Amino acid sequence: MSAAQNRVIVAVDGGGTGCRAAVGTLAAGILAQATGKSANVATGYEAALTNMTDAVADALATAGLNGTPLDQITAHVGVAGANSQAAVDRVAAALPYGQTSATADRETTVIGALGEADGYVLALGTGPIIACQQQGTIRHVAGWGFKLSDQAAGAWLGRRLLEEVLLAHDTMRPHSPLSRAMLDQHGGLHGVIAFGADAVPGDYAKLALDIVPAAEAGDAIAVGLMQEGVRFLQSGLDALGFAEGDTLSLAGGLGPKYESWLAPTYTHALTPPLGTALQGAFEMACKAVRVTA
Predict the structure, then answer these.
(1) What is the topology classification, in CATH, of domain 117-272?
(2) CATH of region 3-112+276-292, choose from 3.40.50.2300, 3.40.50.720, 3.30.420.40, 3.10.100.10
(3) How many angstroms separate the Cα of 52 from the Cα of each of 120, 221, 277?
(4) Structure confidence at residue 271 (pLDDT)
(5) Band of the pLDDT at 17, cuts 50, 70, 90?
(6) For the chain, which residues make up each domain, given as ranges?
(7) Tell me: the pLDDT tens digits for 41-89?
């Protein structure tokens, strides 16, 4: 067996709420995985690097490979918040592995979901990915960061919910069971305001866990938020050239929750994702080993 077949491979899926790492080899595939804290390089660069390398160290230890010299490891990381070539280059250069490449998390998500096939992906977690792959080329829209973008995803839903809570408190909107529950959960108006003063995207995203079931139960505010989100997602697919009959995969913790809200035009060829963003990152690292073998 060649040395390339046994070279240790590391993959990281860095998200706003948490990161995941996998280690393995070409010969054996993924041998172990580990989870870690937030790895959004736009909202906490140094912390993201620490959290990713800690997760990798845990995965290496689980696989029994923690004695591997770091300069003998090939790695690929897909990270949230890396929205420019300069950003991904900075991440790759900062990590301690011998051969390291990096992309935004959208590339690893699309490759994980579609492999080499053409199709469209809606992947929603803390942030959104609206993307397509056509003849090996990946295009995307939106997802430019929580401060200016990220509509329809978990952090955006959570913030919009608290906006509606404040409007309802001021009698500018009718209250709903969900808005009243949010006030109670935060200890009233001032608790909501205090939460918003310090919250990061991952904190807001946790509130989306309450929005989806409330919408399914008919809560007016929750329904309105899901409808607002799905309109944005559909407009993103349209901007990428989606046509009825094109393959669409829903990924991430929140992506499949939008299935029942999408218009039938978008769901005629709904296809389960082949794998996860972590598997996509592992495949990109494997490709780098094959190229240099």
Answers:
(1) Nucleotidyltransferase; domain 5 (3.30.420)
(2) 3.30.420.40
(3) 28, 37, 15
(4) 97
(5) confident
(6) 3-112+276-292, 117-272
(7) 988 899 999 999 999 999 999 999 999 999 999 999 999 888 889 999 9
